[in-house]
Amino acid sequence: MATDEETPLLVENPPTPTLNHKKDVHILCWAFLLIFLAYGAAQNLESTINTEEDLGTISLGILYLSFTFFSVLASLVVKKLGSKTALILGTTGYWLFIAANLKPTWYTMVPASLYLGFAASIIWVAQGTYLTSTAHSYANDFNLHEGTVIGKFNGEFWGMFASHQLVGNLITLALLRDEKGGSTSGTTLLFIVFLCSMTLGTILMCFLSKRNGKEEQMQDSRVTFSSSVVSLLKAMLNLLLDIRILLIIPLIAYSGLQQAFVWAEYTKQIVKPSLGERGVGGAMAVYGVFDAICSLAAGRLTFGLSSITIIVSAGALIQIIVLLWLLLGYSVAGGVLGTVYPLLIGALWGIGDGVLNTQLSALLGILFKHDLVLSFLYLL
């Protein structure tokens, strides 16, 4: 027997949709895959290929400091430009960062990192706004349950997005070669391939439909910048008084921390001692595969707050088990187990990450559909 969430409501004269919503979701998914397969793999390599005076590590630190600063103004920029334009503008920061890696010096990496912090802050607010706006429009046009559509669209997006770890790291494994003396060859060719991938992703963004829902309305041109900032700060404070966002913020904070664990501690303390530097790409590919599969599955199972609660609890439990294993009983093993254990940890952690990414976006889209731009600011 079909559920209410899967069956359209019966209407005498269903409206004719003016936009191809599913096409826009597919374009958004492929564009982000092409952009982040390059950036994700480059980020994994920064601390190992740009080692002179810790240029790679310091560049990433500058990037995330810039990201934190500009996140405060991200929703204002997205509201002013519209989510499609903000998405296209956001891709330019990633392109410049990869280009800077062709000639990695303090004069190229630092400015590129600063600008990427700005670009990343607006692209992620714009992504959440655009995807959820598309889901609302699709549900309204076809009289479907909004929670189900939001869950499916987020599942498709995060499933495709998570696969960037697999594709990007496989390209890295194919093009990089370890030379004698600890050096690595093939980096120039690798970053040229990444630039081509990013260029295709940016071009794809241009084919997105422009969304004109109420969450996409431009602000009056007569409104000054200072008054816009004041209005933004007031809106943020008002949202912080909502008990729902206060309960969600710890989950958002944990989501960021568990991703930081993968990028820093997992690759350095678990993968490298057992599999070496070349094993990092393979381990992250396994992590990406399970992340993608779980994102798609979690999105398909989402239909409302109750399903989100159950799915998030299951993902959190898996990661808790992994953390207890690492704290209480894990040690670097030899032989087959030395290969299996790091890959198993990556797979389990990928399941938890897929759950959190999909469900947090769906949760914000369901609870705060009247102010999507501002609510997705808290995911940064």
From TrEMBL:
Principal location: membrane
Any one GO BP annotation for this protein: potassium ion homeostasis
Gene Ontology CC annotations of this record: membrane
UniProt keyword Membrane, yes or no: yes
InterPro entries: Ion_channel_UNC-93, MFS_trans_sf, UN933_plant, UNC-93_regulatory
Pfam families, alphabetized: UNC-93
UniProt keywords, alphabetically: Membrane, Transmembrane, Transmembrane helix
Lipid bilayer topology: Multi-pass membrane protein
Protein name as it appears in the record: UNC93 3
